[in-house]
Protein 1
Amino acid sequence: MPKPTMKNSSTQMAKHLNWVVSDTYMLMIKTHGYHWNVTGSDFYSLHKLLEMQYTELFEAVDTIAERIRALDFYAPGSTAAFRNHTAVKEAADNPPSANAMLKDLVKTNEQVRDRISEARVFAGEIEDTASEDLMNQRLAAHDKAIWMLRSQAA
């Protein structure tokens, strides 16, 4: 298969990053909502854990969007744009139990991780080391989040 042209490569990389930033943003919203609505005997520890995670996701969104801009493309900037590019299912209006929240966040982090992995592979194929490095950092962050969430789930 012929190697993509630089222009085509950047366009495709920006598309991958649009998916990643949209998934990350929607996961941040879900995590933040669960933070607000978690209840039960583990409330305080889960409330703090989820705060740590949505804060990390917020910082990640900014970094990913800046990488899109560095590729000379516009980052999505509306909830409609995020919804059009995400695989993340939004949380229901009625919050589930704390344990169901944790399981949902594990599943959602795994979905986001899969999309990041695809972007990392593509970045490697086109030798975009900056995007590849960023995706490696995001993979590590999601691995840690999944581990922490699983350790709390019953």
Protein 2
Amino acid sequence: MMAVATRMRRLAVSAAALALVALAYWAPPAAATFHEMSIREVYAGSAAHPDSEYVELQMWAAGQNLVGGHSIAIYNAGGGLAGAVTFAGDVPQGANQSTIVAATPAAESEFGIVADTGMTPGLLDAAGGAVCWASVDCVSWGSFSGSLSSPPGSPAGAIPDGMALRRTIAPGCPTLLEPTDDHDNSAADFSPVFPAPRPNSVPPPQHACGPPRSPSGSGKGGAPQTRLKRRPPKRTHDRTPTFRFTSSEAGSTFQCKLDGKPYRRCHSPFTTRRLSLGPHVFRVRARDASGKLDPSPASYAFKVISKR
């Protein structure tokens, strides 16, 4: 009987061990969650593109991409819920510092991105409002007077036209976002910048800060400077002119626009579509590896005239 009891105890221990192994194998890693994520950037559109809106989240630890079923809540100036963006599923990339973008179709068009999830236009108001991620992190701005589940401290000012509100850890340096960087205070954590949404498909460029960067030819705050190297004459018969351009920072990408069209990703040389007769304006701006956009895009005005 004693031998039988001993054998039964051994079998029970073995079964328990197997259960623990199975649980460890099938259960997701403890770090894989959505809690270690903060709001990085809020863009409420501009006078020229009022429906171009997006909210960007950033992970400050690896494996925070399990966002399926969780929501971004958007509030109006009075604290009422204007709407919410709920992720239908998880995003694929879960590297440390990865970002996730919820954007309207107009924002996708203006910035040449494919958003990680869609967003209804008209939810964000640059004059005042707030955004919360899954009751974990919030930011408010402007005339917001409501109360939030995660207090954002003193609201930042209204978002200037055409600018985004971005969490800024160390201006001019592409730093890592870390828990200790968060003051939980909109006024201290966020500042207006030129919008530069980065969807989850784009690898994060952030790294630990070293000495302040001041690359040769860079503009204010380390932003790249864009220069036109080739352009058509001021009065041209060419209805598909070609432009060549360069950046003061190696590894930059470019965004081009023609007349009132939105910026779209482009590369040098860039040949326009067939243009109508009359005046036109071409603009191009560089974007460096850290996401900074040239605040003063290169611009060139010209006129297409008929051949005689």
